[in-house]
Design goal:
Elements (H helix, E strand, L loop, with lengths): L2 H4 L2 E11 L9 E7 L22 E3 H10 L4 E5 L9 H9 L3 E6 L11 E4 L9 H6 L2 E6 L3 H7 L10 E6 L4 H14 L3 E3 L3 H5 L3
Parallel strand pairs: 2-4, 4-5, 5-6, 6-7, 7-8, 8-9
Antiparallel strand pairs: 1-2, 1-3
Helix pairs in contact: 2-3
């Protein structure tokens, strides 16, 4: 990490310290950095304000590092938007040099840059993941909006690395319809697990 890298800026829609609500790290305290900018365009996206990067303030690596360190968080999750649109190496290196684990949540539509500790890849039908990003995934989390999304998710499993954890997560507004289907599917296919948006039940960010 160089002084120049600390001055690199990213568009930041929001940042907050909370509890991870989804996937493998559910229940862990984590500092979230939500970057602006996304061209994936999910119709059910609950953070559409993140799509236009120009709407959000630019913060330097140094500023973000101080914000996270001041909370004493040990885990930072970089999300979006689509965070892999940017070279995250300067931000990831700065956080890791301070002893902070760094995870990413991405659609996998772009190359993932930076020595991240954990990659959660959640594919989207609106812009398919690239094969290299699929193989980098430590966690594969498919959001199920329609029952057909389950078989769509299965089509990517062959491209994942051995040991990648598999999750099916009901889209929040469709939970009543799709969750019973997911439950039955996971019972028949135990290599999959269910992820729920527990932060929404807890009423936290």
């Amino acid at each position: 990490m160089t002084p120049d890298s600390l001055s690199i800026k990213y568009p930041v829609m929001e940042h907050f310290y909370t509890i991870q609500g989804e996937g493998f790290y559910t229940g862990k305290s984590a500092y979230f950095i939500r970057l602006g900018g996304c061209d994936v365009g999910c119709v059910w996206c609950d953070v559409k304000d993140s799509w236009d990067a120009s709407k959000h303030p630019m913060l330097t690596v140094a500023e973000l590092l101080k914000i996270v360190k001041d909370t004493h968080a040990r885990l930072c999750v970089i999300t979006g938007g689509e965070p892999a649109m940017y070279d995250l190496s300067p931000l990831v290196d700065a956080l890791k040099d301070s002893g902070i684990q760094v995870n990413i949540e991405t659609s996998g539509a772009y190359p993932i840059q930076g020595e991240l500790d954990w990659v959660c890849l959640s594919p989207k039908k609106f812009k398919f993941p690239i094969q290299k990003s699929l193989y980098q995934a430590d966690e594969f989390k498919a959001v199920v909006y329609h029952p057909s999304d389950i078989q769509w998710a299965e089509s990517f499993v062959k491209d994942l690395k051995p040991g990648c954890r598999l999750y099916l997560q009901p889209e929040w507004s469709k939970s009543e319809t799709v969750l019973p289907i997911i439950i039955e599917y996971v019972k028949k296919h135990p290599e999959w697990q269910i992820s729920l948006q527990t932060h929404k039940f807890l009423n936290i960010p």
